[in-house]
């Protein structure tokens, strides 16, 4: 089906079904699963593409395909919280901040820590598979998802998984929709696995002079019996944002979360190892101050609800073997310095996920594009990937957002064709598919 544009006539058709307060010029506000299904049926009839989203903070660039956004941000209900089973079922528009607030009195938490939890919705986190530095200990988004309700392009609503932790019925369909970016259906309900809130948490900052020496030290930590919640290698600009000092060209930020004696024991071990390696454990934060470090790191990630005026912002995600993280960051730093661009970057030495945020004036857009191309060539030579997650000021039209195709790309296209043969949901939003 060829995508068509929204007109006054077909918008009026939808408003007569949903109510005028739910339909704007380029946005549909769904308030229930029934609204989502009606919007899909309308899209089938009119040939208009739907772009499912939460609050649109991390909206993905999709090119010039005409269509209308389907916002689920008004679907904010907590359907069921089974505290004894450590599970909760919610609608997709609930923000992570609000959900964690609901769970906090029960001493429980959702083990997901993507940035900007005040605007990141549960459905958005699931659809984009967004995680944070504590992915090292807490796992991926799909590890926290027990079940979903999804409205398909046919208008049919399906349930994947279940509402209990032990669920082994057939194929794990959850993984099909986690990270699919709304290209296969609109998530209308999420059942999630919870964890107890750790009694204590700490962050240690290990200052270093080179990427290599910190990577070697981190490998000793990761190969040990210690259980860090996060091990992030950061450049000097990020170190300054986190700790307020500019004494280090790069650093290692290590997190722990456990009972108080266990956290203290691990900090002591880290301190002693640092002395042995000639490194200095320069910073230490506990409790709320430790949580604040991770929040500050998350705030370095740009989003569409907070545009930068007069400057461009570019956010890349690098995916490599965890042993290659330091190499990726070092290459990114050297290249940005050569182009005289402002770069904030950090990467998980246990996960292989790196984040690079480039800032500059509009007249530096050409240098930014060259920087992306050079970095991507280097990373793809390592058999890794570089994906553009955010691009402002028209940069998205000058840069390939995805780079080389992922393994199994043809299989993904076949799944998309089978579930959405008429192209109701956005093409190009995931891997260029």
From TrEMBL:
Keywords: FAD, Flavoprotein, Oxidoreductase. One of its GO terms (molecular function) is oxidoreductase activity. SUPFAM superfamilies: FAD-binding/transporter-associated domain-like (SSF56176), FAD-linked oxidases, C-terminal domain (SSF55103). It comes from the Bacteria. Its cofactor is FAD. It holds the Pfam family FAD_binding_4. This is Glycolate oxidase. The gene is glcE.
């Amino acid at each position: 089906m060829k995508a068509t544009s929204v007109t006054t006539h077909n918008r009026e058709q939808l408003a007569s079904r949903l109510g005028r307060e739910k339909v704007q010029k380029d946005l549909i506000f769904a308030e229930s699963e029934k609204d989502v299904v009606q919007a899909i049926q309308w899209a089938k009839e009119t040939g208009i593409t739907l772009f499912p989203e939460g609050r649109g903070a991390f909206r993905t660039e999709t090119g010039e395909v005409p269509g209308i956004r389907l916002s689920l941000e008004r679907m904010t209900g907590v359907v069921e919280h089974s505290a004894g089973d450590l599970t909760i079922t919610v609608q997709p528009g609930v923000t992570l901040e609000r959900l964690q607030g609901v769970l906090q009195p029960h001493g429980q938490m959702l083990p997901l820590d993507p940035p900007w939890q005040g605007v990141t919705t549960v459905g958005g986190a699931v659809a984009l598979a967004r995680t944070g530095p504590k992915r090292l200990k807490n796992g991926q988004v799909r590890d926290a998802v027990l079940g979903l309700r999804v409205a398909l392009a046919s208008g049919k609503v399906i349930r994947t998984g279940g509402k209990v932790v032990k669920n082994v019925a057939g194929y794990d369909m959850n993984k099909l929709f986690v990270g699919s970016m709304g290209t296969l259906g609109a998530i209308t309900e999420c059942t999630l696995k919870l964890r107890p809130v750790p009694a204590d948490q700490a962050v240690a900052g290990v200052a270093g002079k080179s990427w290599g020496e910190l990577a070697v030290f981190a490998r000793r930590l990761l190969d040990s019996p210690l259980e860090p919640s996060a091990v992030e290698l950061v450049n000097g600009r990020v170190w300054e944002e986190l700790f307020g000092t500019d004494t280090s060209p790069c650093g290692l930020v290590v997190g722990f979360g456990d009972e108080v004696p266990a956290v203290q024991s691990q900090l002591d071990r880290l301190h002693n190892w640092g002395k042995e390696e000639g490194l200095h454990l320069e910073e230490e934060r506990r409790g709320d101050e430790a949580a604040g470090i991770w929040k500050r790191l998350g705030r370095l990630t740009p989003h569409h609800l907070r545009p930068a005026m007069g400057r461009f912002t570019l956010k890349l995600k690098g995916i490599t073997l965890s042993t290659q993280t330091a190499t990726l960051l070092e290459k990114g730093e050297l290249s940005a310095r050569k182009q005289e661009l402002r770069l904030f970057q950090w990467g998980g030495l246990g996960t292989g996920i790196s984040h690079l945020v480039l800032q500059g004036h509009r007249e530096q857009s050409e240098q930014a594009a060259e920087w992306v191309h050079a970095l991507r060539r280097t990373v793809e030579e390592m058999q890794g990937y570089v994906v553009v997650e955010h691009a402002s000021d028209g940069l998205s039209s000058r840069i390939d957002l995805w780079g080389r195709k992922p393994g199994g790309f043809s299989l993904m296209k076949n799944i998309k064709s089978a579930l959405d043969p008429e192209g109701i949901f956005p093409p190009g939003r995931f891997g260029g598919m």
